[in-house]
Write a structure and sequence with these properties.
The structure holds 2 protein chains of 2 kinds.
Chain A: H1 2-22, H2 30-59, H3 68-90, H4 95-104, H5 106-123, H6 127-133, H7 135-142, H8 144-161, H9 167-181, H10 185-191
Helix pairs in contact in A: 1-2, 1-3, 2-3, 2-8, 2-9, 3-5, 4-5, 5-8, 6-7, 8-9
Chain B: H1 6-12, H2 17-24, H3 30-38, E1 53-54, H4 66-69, H5 84-88, E2 98-103, E3 109-112, H6 113-119, E4 123-130, E5 135-145, H7 146-152, E6 161-166, H8 174-177, E7 186-190, H9 191-194, E8 200-205, E9 208-209, E10 219-221, E11 234-240, H10 247-251, E12 275-278, E13 285-286, H11 294-297
Parallel strand pairs in B: 1-4, 2-11, 5-12
Antiparallel strand pairs in B: 2-3, 4-5, 5-8, 6-7, 6-11, 8-9, 8-10, 12-13
Helix pairs in contact in B: 3-6
Classes of the chains: A mainly alpha, B alpha+beta.
The structure holds protoporphyrin IX containing FE (HEM).
Protoporphyrin IX containing FE (HEM) binds near residues 32, 39, 43, 86 and 108 of chain A.
């Protein structure tokens, strides 16, 4: 039951968002509120995906691996919604303006990079693709997720920096730093559960 | 229209302390009520807000709903998020209030809000407001031309620019206390811009006293310039000879110039200014030169390179 429950839970943010939008509860600029919240959930799901392996190791909860792909794809789903809302509702698909935005605003540049890098990971998430690539190459490719994590947090940081409102991004910097540190072999040595 | 002569002005420029204290008792009644109580002698139109005349300079576009106008504000004195001012601005005490008019004028002095409301009949002016961030509103302001007030203080021949300074009260303004920006906020206009009939000093919107988050008790409205030029909660107006530095010029000189006219052709260094989101609308609309006021103001900038003087 764990996986179906999690599946429904992950849908909740977008359902809740669309519901508030339809009720006019997103404030004076609902489009801006929507773009922001979708981006925030993309980042949250990215970090949740990165939690799977450390938790699995620490708690010896191996079945957890079964939800990793789902969390990763949900991250992609929210990222796509975030980016499509931006392209459509914010920029009305004006290619020139969009290219300009990507070039001129560093926070958009890194958000764009992070999104582009997410695409191959989503495409190669199926069992068939894993088989076709072979385990080793697949794993190597999916190490990109660490870079994506850094770029996404930087995207958030730079966006917030221009308004000197960094309390929230700090939270994500710390969370990401911990999650990345747990990947360092030396840290893993210390975190190994006692032999039984 | 009533423009006080300078002698009249200096007589009444400083309101006695006792009357100030007395006024404090009326705080909760709001400025309008206070003004009508203290000025029963200005015939039937005791409430200047109710008797405002409609201006032919108004746009006929749909108004932005009041709750959007009062809940989505950039007013860093109360925090940097748009929703902050509506939550935090109640702590600013706006009565009593005086504006100091100084510098290159023949009759420098103070003028109180009560005198302002008594001397300058209010008009309703429905203007577009375009924020530099790319959104816009249509707001029914109540106010009077800045030129009426300036003329009463008699600017001299050295008065080439007008500098405006906002209130500086960290204890009443949480954003100031947290120093999120260099305060007090300062703005400026060239004298001909300041004297232009579209340039408004506003004391209200939607028929009522200006809410604190919108710049109470008195603010500038310059509809053909980006919103940050329309400085809020003004306490000092200084006529000067040299172009004054504005807060945003000081903070980010390569991004914000002195003029800051709405101009879809000149992008902000980090984003396009071609379009704007009218609050309440689903898609963006095209931004107009001088925010649609080109017919009235373009002549002010004849021969200037608006790319250089952004
Ligand atoms: C082409 C790619 C992307 C574009 C163009 C883009 C654009 C934006 C824009 C315009 C904003 C709102 C800025 C504002 O309201 O001032 C934003 C915020 C944000 N984006 Fe993105 N983004 C992209 C990719 C991503 C990705 C891949 C993630 C995460 C995995 C992400 C996470 C966020 C976060 C966390 C915020 C801040 C939300 C908040 O303010 O609470 N973005 N992005």
């Amino acid at each position: 039951m764990f996986k179906p429950t999690l599946f429904v839970l992950c849908l909740f943010p977008i359902v809740w968002l669309l519901w508030r939008e339809s009720m006019g509860q997103l404030g004076a600029n609902p489009i801006e509120a929507m773009i922001r919240e979708l981006g925030l959930w993309a980042l949250r799901l990215l970090l949740l995906t990165l939690c799977v392996t450390p938790i699995r190791q620490l708690l010896q909860w191996h079945a957890l691996i079964r939800v990793r792909r789902m969390l990763g794809l949900y991250c992609f789903f929210y990222a796509v919604s975030h980016v499509v809302s931006y392209l459509w509702l914010d920029q009305s698909f004006d290619v020139g303006d969009i290219i300009n935005d990507i070039i001129k605003r560093p926070f958009i540049t890194v958000g764009f990079l992070s999104f582009v890098l997410l695409i191959p990971l989503a495409i190669t998430s199926s069992n068939r693709m894993i088989q076709r690539l072979g385990g080793k190459q697949w794993r190597q490719l999916h190490r990109l997720v660490y870079l994506i994590g850094i770029l996404s947090v930087l995207h958030f940081w730079w966006m917030a920096e221009s308004k000197s409102r960094l309390a929230e991004p700090w939270l994500y910097v710390v969370a990401l730093a911990i999650l990345l540190a747990m990947r360092i072999p030396l840290t893993r040595l210390f975190l190994k559960p006692p032999a039984r | 229209m009533l423009i006080k002569t300078s002698t009249e002005l200096s007589d009444s420029a400083v309101t006695p302390e006792a009357i100030y204290l007395q006024r404090r008792q009326f705080l909760q009644l709001g400025i309008a009520a206070t003004a009508s109580l203290l000025a029963p002698n200005i015939f039937a139109a005791a409430n200047p807000f109710a008797s405002a005349t409609k201006s032919p300079l108004s746009t006929t576009e749909d108004l932005t709903p009041l709750d959007s106008v009062t809940s989505y504000n950039n007013f860093y004195e109360f925090g940097v998020e748009k929703t902050d001012p509506a939550q935090n601005a109640h702590t600013l005490i706006t009565t009593p209030w005086t504006i100091n008019v100084e510098g290159e004028v023949e009759k420098p002095g103070m003028i109180s809000m009560d005198e302002i409301l008594k001397n300058y009949p209010l008009e309703e002016r429905i203007y577009r407001l375009r924020c530099v961030e790319g959104w816009s509103m249509v707001i029914p302001w109540l106010g009077f031309p800045l030129s009426h007030l300036l003329k009463a203080f008699k600017p001299n021949s050295r008065a080439k620019y007008v500098q405006f300074i906002s209130v500086d009260r960290p204890e009443q303004m949480i954003g100031q206390k947290q120093k999120v920006f260099e305060f007090p906020y300062q703005e400026g206009l060239r004298i001909d811009e300041a004297m232009h009939p579209l340039t408004l000093l506003s004391v209200g919107l939607y028929g009522k006293v200006l809410p604190n988050q919108n710049g109470a008790p008195i603010r500038l409205v310059v509809p053909w310039k980006y919103g940050f030029k329309s400085i809020k909660s003004i306490v000092t107006i200084r006529l000067v000879e040299k172009q004054p530095l504005t807060s945003w010029q000081k903070a980010v000189p390569n991004e914000y110039g002195f003029y800051s006219n709405v101009n879809p052709e000149v992008d902000h260094p980090r984003w396009s200014q071609k379009k704007e989101r009218r609050i309440g609308e689903f898609f963006k609309r095209k931004t107009l030169m001088f925010n649609g006021y080109a017919d009235q103001v373009a002549a002010l900038y004849n021969g200037m390179d608006l790319r250089k003087d952004y």
